[in-house]
Amino acid sequence: MKKVIFNNSYEKGKRSITQWFINEYVDETSKVFEGFAGAGIITSMYAQKAKMVLAIEKDKERHSALEKKFQDFENVQLVNADSLDYLKSINSFDFNVVDLDPWGNANKQTELALKLMEEGYLLITSGEPYAISRFKIKIKKYGKPPIISLEDFPEQLFTRFVQPTAEKLGKKARLIKHFNSPKICRIIVEVN
Ligand SMILES: C[S@@+](CC[C@H](N)C(=O)[O-])C[C@H]1O[C@@H](n2cnc3c(N)ncnc32)[C@H](O)[C@@H]1O
User: Per-residue pLDDT for 18 more than 90?
Assistant: First the structure.
């Protein structure tokens, strides 16, 4: 199993914006879908307050570790699967918080979540800022001109990808807050 290092400023920033969101928007009626459970740091945060958390993890060993970690939590359900396959396979989707915290990007999961979700909140992490800051890669997948600037990456991700995808599906998306760093960014979007 790959070692996951959480004790760095990017992870702290990610946790801190998530805690802000939980304080402001999550309550005992919230149903959370987490597409990339990892070591369950974010799962634990939701589990303190939400009605239920469904946490998907593809890696078998990490999933087993999660089963141990959450064995006494009645409101946490764990699934060992690929989150994209899982989202493609379900007929009903009864969640009002979708949290996607991948390595790299979760664009395919984001599209499906926007389709399946009636209304609620979408939290998306992207590792693409690292490609820009470390390797000076021009991000071309969000249309022209390519994104070359780290500073406004979260806004660009929202206006070029999340918002138009929601609009195509007849939904409205509003960027509530974001966290940015040279390694990852995280955006919080309201969908209705
Ligand atoms: C950035 S980590 C998630 C960290 C997690 N949010 C936490 O708080 O501990 C990304 C995780 O997603 C898992 N993963 C990668 N691709 C996946 C997929 N398609 N479906 C489900 N899990 C996946 C990896 O095994 C890894 O554990």
Answer: yes
Whole-structure pTM value: 0.95
Atom 3 of ligand 1: nearest residue by CA position: 38
Per-position b or e across 111-130, b if 16+ CB within 10 A of its CB: bbbbebbeebbbbbbbbbbb
Give the residue among 88, 90, 82, 87 at the shortest CA–CA distance from 63: 82
- How many angstroms separate the alpha carbon of residue 74 from the centre of ligand 1? 22
Q: Per-residue confidence at 2, pLDDT binned at 50, 70, 90?
A: very low
The residue whose CA is least distant from atom 4 of ligand 1 is: 38
CATH of domain 9-191: 3.40.50.150
The set of protein residues with a Cβ atom below 6 angstroms from ligand 1 is 36-42, 56-59, 62, 82-84, 101-103
Calculate what percentage of the chain has a pLDDT beyond 90.
92
**Domain ranges in the chain?**
9-191
